[in-house]
Specification:
The N and C termini lie far apart (62 Å). The protein is mostly helical. 84% of the residues lie in helices and 0% in strands. It has five helices and no strands. It has one domain (2-121): Non-ribosomal Peptide Synthetase Peptidyl Carrier Protein, Chain A (Orthogonal Bundle), CATH 1.10.1200.
Length: 122
């Protein structure tokens, strides 16, 4: 019984649930990035250069036994994911820097309570 209770406490912790949600969102994000690279970027940018009309053709590009097309697609996907994560982290960092300035403003009710306290002292 204690084992099940301990497992329930572990599995239902907020950080474990958040991690599970992040993994699911990450998997969905992976399919979006894959589609973006395979269906949009590859045809627009790489087709004229590599004569590859789509990602399937890109992945079949090879030089002997070396399949450089798959590598190029993987590098493009990595760069897109890294850039998007950079933008997200940069935005979060800016928001965190702005929070203390907003928190420095004293609420009106606190100011009123301070006035009452000061007048009672006198």
């Amino acid at each position: 019984m204690a084992f099940l209770r301990d497992f329930k406490e572990f599995a239902l912790k907020k950080n474990v649930i958040e991690l599970a949600v992040a993994v699911v969102i990450g998997a969905a994000f992976n399919s979006i990035v894959s589609s973006l690279v395979d269906d949009v970027i590859t045809p627009l940018l790489l087709a004229p250069v590599l004569k590859a009309a789509n990602a399937e053709n890109l992945e079949t590009l090879s030089w002997g036994a070396v399949k450089y097309g798959k590598f190029i697609a993987a590098v493009i996907k990595f760069l897109i994911i890294a850039f998007i994560l950079f933008l997200i982290i940069r935005a979060m960092t800016r928001l965190q820097k702005q929070e203390p300035a907003a928190a420095a403003v004293t609420p009106e009710d606190i100011l009123l309570l301070r006035e009452i306290r000061d007048s009672l002292k006198n």
